[in-house]
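Take the subject:
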Amino acid sequence: MKAVAVLLSTGLIVYGAARPETIDTSAGALRITPIQHASLMIEAGGKVIQVDPVNPPYYKGLPAPDLILITDIHGDHLSAPTIGAIRKQGTVIIAPEVVVPTVPDAQVLANGQSKKWNDFTIEAIPMYNLTRGPKPGQLFHDKGRGNGYVITYGGKRIYISGDTEGIPEMRALRNIDVAFVCMNLPYTMPPNEAAEAVKAFHPAVVYPYHYRGSDLKIFEEALKGTGIELRIRDWYAN
């Protein structure tokens, strides 16, 4: 789904974001909008959540977030100028501790911890490399540094992987309704490894994201016959 002009319920015309997709929950509709690469927006219960917002022009015309979730310190996930441009008074920021030097007012959530925020529950899931790194003995993402998240609203569970390989903590997830799973080299994992991890925790729906340069047909072929609904969207239209 390429970037298009979208008429939102607010009456605003938004350019650069894909069309919102709606998930029915026991608490009402939840809308998810892919923004670009690793960035997405969640709207439900009158609240707006931005995940890993970077590059301010992508947010022109979008509502100011009530909550910002940050997964990691890399530049495609953490941008202090973007946070400063889109936040409003009262915006809550939840992030791993490593983000605090850049965003001092961030509320820290460590791997394995959870937090209730309004009608949402936010769980911090580990995200890390098992083998891949810039050189022997180093990893692109060390265990404990960053967070994936499981967001629960109205009985639905949404998993956002962050930058990770197919780690045991991902494979052990259960009852995930919607999953956003990364796949790109060299920083995370290739599509075939991502598919094997996804088959292990078997979400109802999976969106590849953070997939720049990856062959998504490999991912698609690997999931055939699993009963997992695959939704491929264009996160790189701009």
Q: What stands out?
A: The longest strand covers residues 28-36. The mean pLDDT is 92. Residues 48 and 65 are 5 Å apart (CA to CA).
